[in-house]
């Protein structure tokens, strides 16, 4: 007898996209009620029999098998609006804080982006020494640049340093001369991202409306990240490995349009005095 075998060259983990969840799903859950007075599952509810049998007496309405043999089927819930994916919310916040909202590039000097990208790739090859060598080369380059500026005029350097620092705080990175956009700040309040324009200092702001807080809605944040991905996908896919996928818009992973509902057998209902009760984690 020949034993089937295969050599695994690569293994990767990913997340289902909205389309994949819908393909996997056997029904849309669109009913809040779960059980009727006789203890039967409502059609379209969280224990609809199309998601698999709920107990020994049921038959699956998708595959026709009983409780022992049906492995269960997934459903989905369509969300009325796009929301931030709670699993990646922290990462999304960090990424948005480091993004220029004018040119949709990462707010970092080109040398640094190139350095980190090469260092991450070097680690993939196990070239630990190269990571250090790259760091030294980059540091030398940065030092050389500073030296050149210093030779020009030592006194002016103090002025320049101060102006650069102020400029950097207010504008897109000076190493990106194509963009002199005022830098906008993102602040996080619980599960909200609030966007404010910090082009003017607090003292020079003519009215309080300059600082009016404005929510960054998930749909807008998604567009923004899609533009960022277009410009800096090389770096982003090195830095965030979960963005390496065949999905044309991998940054969609930061957002949710649908929720995958696992088969009923993996979230069994509680039975109390012959009455079925849904588990608290099922409540929509
Ligand atoms: Zn089934
Ligand atoms: Zn910019």
TrEMBL record:
Residues 7-275 form the RNA polymerase Rpb1 domain. Pfam families: RNA_pol_Rpb1_1. Gene3D superfamilies: RNA polymerase II, clamp domain. Signal peptide: none annotated. Its EC number is 2.7.7.6. One of its GO terms (biological process) is DNA-templated transcription. GO terms for cellular component: RNA polymerase I complex. The keyword Nucleotidyltransferase applies. One of its GO terms (molecular function) is DNA binding. It comes from the Eukaryota. Belongs to the RNA polymerase beta' chain family. This is DNA-directed RNA polymerase. Keywords: DNA-directed RNA polymerase, Nucleotidyltransferase, Transcription, Transferase. It is an enzyme of class 2 (transferase). Coiled coil: none annotated. SUPFAM superfamilies: beta and beta-prime subunits of DNA dependent RNA-polymerase.
């Amino acid at each position: 007898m020949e034993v089937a075998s295969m050599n695994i060259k690569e293994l990767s983990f990913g997340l289902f996209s909205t389309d994949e969840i819908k393909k996997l799903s056997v029904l849309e859950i669109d009913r809040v009620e779960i059980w009727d007075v006789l203890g039967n599952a409502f059609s379209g509810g969280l224990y609809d029999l199309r998601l698999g049998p709920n107990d020994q007496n049921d038959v699956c309405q998708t595959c026709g098998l009983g409780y022992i043999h049906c492995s269960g089927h997934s459903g989905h819930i369509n969300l009325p609006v796009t929301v931030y994916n709670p699993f990646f919310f922290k990462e999304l916040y960090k990424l948005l804080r480091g993004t220029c909202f004018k040119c949709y590039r990462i707010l970092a000097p080109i040398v640094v982006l190139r350095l980190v990208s090469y260092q991450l790739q070097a680690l993939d090859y196990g070239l630990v020494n190269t990571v250090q060598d790259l760091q030294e080369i980059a540091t030398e380059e940065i030092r050389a640049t500073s030296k050149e500026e210093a030779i020009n005029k030592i006194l002016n350097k103090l002025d320049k340093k101060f102006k650069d620092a102020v400029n950097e705080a207010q504008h897109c990175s000076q190493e990106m001369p194509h963009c002199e956009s005022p830098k906008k700040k993102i602040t996080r309040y619980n599960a909200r991202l609030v966007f404010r324009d910090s082009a003017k200092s607090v003292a020079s702001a003519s009215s309080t409306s300059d600082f009016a807080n404005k929510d960054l809605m998930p749909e807008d944040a998604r567009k923004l990240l899609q533009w960022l991905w277009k410009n800096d996908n090389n770096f982003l896919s090195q830095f965030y490995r979960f963005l390496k996928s065949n999905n044309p818009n991998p940054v969609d992973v930061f957002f949710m349009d649908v929720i995958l509902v696992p088969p009923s057998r993996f979230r069994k209902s509680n039975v109390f005095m012959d009455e079925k009760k849904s588990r608290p984690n099922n409540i929509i």
